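for the writeup, i need someone to sanity check this before i put it in the appendix. the sequnce is what the collaborator sent (i think, or maybe the updated version? ugh). structure was predicted straight from it, no edits. if anything looks off just tell me and ill rerun, i have time this weekend
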Amino acid sequence: MRGELTAKGRATRSRIVEGAAAVLRERGVASATLDDIMARTRTSKSQLFHYFPAGKDELLVAVAQFEADHVLEDQQPYLGRLDSWEAWEQWRDVVIERYEAQGDECPLGSLFLQIGRSTPGARAIVIELMRRWQESLAAGIRSLQANGRLPAGLDVDARAAALLAAIQGGVSILLSTGRSTHLRAALHQGIADLRRAGDAVA
């Protein structure tokens, strides 16, 4: 059905997803109801099920995709132009600010707890998010190589994967403790390790 939507239909569906995301952030995934979402988005029940025939779970998957997209969008424009050490530091600060503002509540994580990673499409959202994020970090490392700031023989994919894993570890601890100390350390150390690798070509 999605491919057959008119421009107006796509706009309506997007409005429902964005409104649902706002409701879920405010009330929590477990507490929010379809009535809450319909009230916020000024949508009738028939409209809601027209765009999401499988009901709440299908809508939650769409909101999870919306939240996943925002994880990367919130890091722009810095994530897309990691071509200098200054740019990496700006990106680091934006990531820390984003997760400190979010605190110990993760909308995306809460959604996956509710719908389960086995729900069709749910695991694919996480896999695609991590793939895009790692590829963006790898592109930044390759930019530094092209600028002569990192050695050509550096294992770019391994470095990007390690940095992403460090970030996720820091975020997990933040969600558990409410403290960003480990996330800050992970980002500072990850960038510092990259810069040390570049000392050989300085």
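The two ends are 55 Å apart (CA to CA). The chain has two domains: 2-53, 64-201.
thx in advance!!
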